[in-house]
Amino acid sequence: TLVYLNGEFLPYDQASLSIDDRGTLFSDGVYEVLEYFAGRPFAMQQHVDRLKYSLAGICIDPPSVVDELPAISDELIRRNDMPDARVYWQVTRGPAPRNHLPPSDPTPTVLVTTTPTQPLSSNPPARQWKAITHEDLRWKRCCYKTLMLLPNTLAKQQAKRDGCQEAILHQGVAVTEGGSTNVFVVRDGELWTHPANEAILRGITRDLVIDYARAMDLTVHETAVTLDELRQADEVFVTGTTTHVTAITHIDGHPIQLGEVGPVTASLHDAYEQQLM
Ligand code: PDD
Fold first, then answer.
1. What per-residue confidence (pLDDT) applies to 122?
2. pLDDT of residue 101
3. 209 by DSSP, 3-state: which?
4. Residues with a CB atom less than 6 Å from ligand 1
5. Can you tell me the distance from the alpha carbon of 6 to that of 254, in angstroms, rounded to the nearest whole number?
6. Which stretches of the chain score pLDDT less than 50?
7. d(CA 238, CA 180)
8. Ligand 1 pocket: which of 33, 146, 171, 243 to mutate (most atoms <8 Å of CB)?
9. Is Transferase a UniProt keyword of this protein (predicted)?
10. For residue 103, what pLDDT is reported?
11. CATH code 3.20.10.10 region(s) in the chain
């Protein structure tokens, strides 16, 4: 399998990073994850735009190669013969002797990798996950997709220990998002999700699902729900590039209503899968 690293396509085993890369030393970098289906990328431009937004957010001048990431990704998908794949983009501030203060003109490290996935099937049922609730221990700029994922990975490990697949994060009683997803609640036929502010990553899947919901004449409130409202919801689901629309049937061991996929979740799931075909 080939990867792309700093201008070269290299066999996976021959790609290497400096041990002084600031991505490793300080989590000083940003990333994106996008999917290819049957050789075609989904929501490519949105991922390029968000990568630039994240780079600007952490004061890295976007290297010009950022605009070539779509072409580089297409080439990797083709040369790796992986028409159905997850593509990972990572840009770090680059290598520099360890010092909190970066050099004035570092050279960013740009990495692209691919991982094969299952081809799409027509009319797949919505996946069902169980979730725990977990305090949101992250920094105050979660709108940037940085490599600083320790609070997320620790929360997801706790979820796994509790027999669950996702951790729903909350600041005080306000639900923010999932460890690697955005969270939606359905109440009385209306949708609620956290506003796209600094406290959450503005998911590309989230924004698409909001569009599909509005196209179905559902009212969408971009207002945070409380933990009580989450637990008493009619339906809860999470969204993400790799998660698509996934139902949350249980939270902290208690079922959401009957502990099944609800009708609003099912229709939004179907709408999303349709777009991917
Ligand atoms: N995660 N919130 C967080 C904290 C995320 O990490 C992600 C995505 C999302 C959903 O964003 P999008 O719909 O644009 O994928 C929300 C990716 C998939 C990951 O880290 O692997």
1. 84
2. 97
3. helix
4. 33, 152, 177, 180-182, 201, 203-206, 239-242
5. 48
6. none
7. 9
8. 33
9. yes
10. 95
11. 128-276
Determine the pLDDT at residue 170.
98
Token pair for 44: 């490519």
Q: What is the pLDDT of residues 142-193, one digit of tens each?
A: 999 999 999 999 999 999 999 999 999 999 999 999 999 999 999 999 999 9
Topology (CATH) of 2-116: D-amino Acid Aminotransferase; Chain A, domain 1 (3.30.470)
Cβ pair 273, 120 in contact under 8 A:
yes
Give the H/E segment covering residue 222. Answer: strand 220-222
Question: What pLDDT sits at residue 259?
Answer: 97
Q: How many CA atoms lie within 13 A of 188 on its CB side?
A: 3
- Cα separation, 122 vs 262, in Å, equals 20
| Exposure b/e, 161-180, CB count within 10 A at least 16 = b | eeebbbbbbbeeebbbbbbb
Q: Is 145 a catalytic residue?
A: yes
